[in-house]
Write a structure and sequence with these properties.
The structure is a homodimer. By secondary structure, the first copy, chain A, is of the alpha+beta class. Chain A folds into 2 domains: 86 residues, Winged helix-like DNA-binding domain superfamily/Winged helix DNA-binding domain (Arc Repressor Mutant, subunit A, Orthogonal Bundle), CATH 1.10.10; 113 residues, no CATH class. Helix content of chain A is 47%, strand content 19%. Chain A is built from 10 helices and 11 strands. In chain A, α2 packs across α3 and α3 crosses α4. Chain A is elongated and about 60 Å long. In chain A, 38% of the residues are buried. At the A-B interface, α1, α2, α3 and α5 of A face α1, α2, α3 and α5 of B. Chain A binds a DNA duplex through α4.
DNA sequence: CGAATGCTTCGATTATGGTCGAAGTATGAA
DNA sequence: TTCATACTTCGACCATAATCGAAGCATTCG
């Protein structure tokens, strides 16, 4: 007669208002930091940390460590579907909810992320490289293909030198504004350096923004077309 | 920034182990009494009553008063779908659950329910009448059609006499074993009386069981074919 | 190397709510 | 009417867990 406690566990995870707000925020499909999620839930960072640990232990969330940030996202499509069905039923009996507002618009286009390009341009660059089969992306792992290596060398990047470094050449980095992956690692740094060296882009003062010149814009669009 | 609390409410309802066990038991699609649900949950009747009131207030359950019993069932298809998605996710990370065992086999086939036929035969009878468009069933309301009225009179039931009574002619009654509706009301009583008068069936001693004779079985199958 | 930021862990407080005993209500049976 | 069954309500107890302050760890920046 002993009934399994599993659906109760999932329910109780969703049942706390703070966690429910976090999950709702993550339903947008973008990864969020612990601090952001704490704000969404209206609780302190300590409490949020506890909740996030529970959600992760319950399999609802996955965590990506990114520098001193921790980005949380829904772990599987199934989690989203489950939440959607609950939200659908809940919506059918009352309360509506509103979407969180947009973010700072200035840095969304292009900015430096430690040492590589991030923002819309960063995401577009990686997307384009993957679409052109110059980088293979399986999950979070990036591998430069032979075609990619040739392309990189043709651009004047010293690939052999990159290989000698202990740092990974290709890494994914979760984008602050786009919340999708862009290219990090030594190759990502090399690309940004290239853009700046060529005079296509330059860093803003007292900001992480990257400003592309007109010729830079044009060259970037030719190098990394959008499909 | 105030996020709606609705999915948290639903989650917390599902999140309690006792309530989760009740909901799981109801996922079989059959209505269950408060006492049965208390047993499934492993709690006392008082506690179960409190839980059931909450689940009903949350819109997950509906209640049907039937004599001194209260039958509870999932309120909508959407509830079942929601629970199914949660169970699917929960199952994908661990515990399995087992189905509750079968019930007393003796009375399942046919028995008297106060004054009318219940059990498998009772359910089959109503199903057949509805399928033949002699009774229209909208929700819990039953209406005898013109064709149904003619059929009833052809069988020798005094429909005019039934109409004079204050009792409702057609009523649904939730079946103890089948947990689906069968025909109650004065017409239900008239049918059972007819079966007994014709010698097709008789009541068992000290039991609520109804035993059909061979000719009764045959006549019943002809009168109420299964589609 | 500090200093600052992002997050976790620990510990204590507090409150929500699950639980059951006892008593009360409603329905059916005798 | 009286008794039995099915269920609800009330009240009190108790355990779980949500919360936050303070301290600790990890990472980046200057």
């Amino acid at each position: 007669m002993k009934e399994g406690p599993d659906i109760a566990l999932i329910g109780s995870l969703i049942g706390d208002p703070a966690r429910a707000n976090m999950l709702t925020a993550l339903m947008g499909g973008r990864a969020l930091t612990a601090t952001e999620l704490a704000t969404h839930a209206g609780i302190t960072l300590q409490t949020a940390s506890s909740h996030l640990a529970k959600l992760e232990a319950g399999g609802l969330l996955t965590q990506r460590k990114q520098g001193r940030h921790r980005y949380y996202a829904l772990s599987e499509d199934e989690v989203g579907l489950m939440l959607e069905s609950i939200m659908g039923f809940a919506a059918s009996r009352g309360l509506t909810r509103h979407r969180p507002g947009p973010k700072d618009p200035a840095l969304r286009k292009a900015r430096v992320c430690y040492n590589h390009l991030a923002g819309d341009y960063g995401v577009r660059m990686l997307d384009s490289l993957v679409a052109a089969r110059q980088i293979e992306m399986t999950g979070d792992d990036l591998v430069l293909t032979d075609a990619g290596q040739a392309r990189v060398e043709a651009l004047g990047i010293d690939y052999a030198a990159l290989k000698k470094l202990r740092r990974p050449i290709c890494r994914t980095c979760l984008d602050w504004s786009e919340r999708r992956s862009h290219l990090a690692g030594s190759l990502g740094e090399a690309f940004l350096t290239l853009f700046i060296d060529k005079g296509w882009a330059r860093r803003e003062q007292n900001s992480r923004a990257i400003r592309f010149t007109d010729t830079g814009e044009k060259a970037f669009s030719e190098l990394f077309p959008q499909y």
